[in-house]
Backbone:
């Protein structure tokens, strides 16, 4: 095994990269919060419409909305949050 010490250039570059990634993460969080705020303030705007104006797909916007508790635009029709249909009574045995 060799005894390797990274150069100062590499160490500096990695430190810069770490700072840049932290800034990107911070900016992404701000952008997600702004998307959620816009969706809450404009209940008639769908994620599909918003997706035309942002660098994310409508599915990504749905995930952002769920993470920020944006109210649903319509009642769920399937899944665990969908209303239950009343059961039909079983036929009587003769």
Residues:
């Amino acid at each position: 095994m060799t005894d390797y010490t990274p150069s100062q250039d590499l160490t500096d570059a990695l430190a810069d990269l770490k700072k840049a990634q932290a800034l990107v993460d911070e900016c992404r969080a701000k952008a997600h919060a702004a998307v959620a705020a816009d969706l809450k303030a404009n209940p008639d705007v769908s994620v599909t419409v918003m997706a035309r104006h942002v660098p994310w797909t409508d599915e990504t916007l749905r995930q952002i909305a769920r993470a920020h508790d944006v109210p649903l635009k319509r009642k769920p029709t399937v899944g665990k949050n969908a209303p239950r249909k009343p059961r039909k009574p079983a036929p009587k045995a003769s």
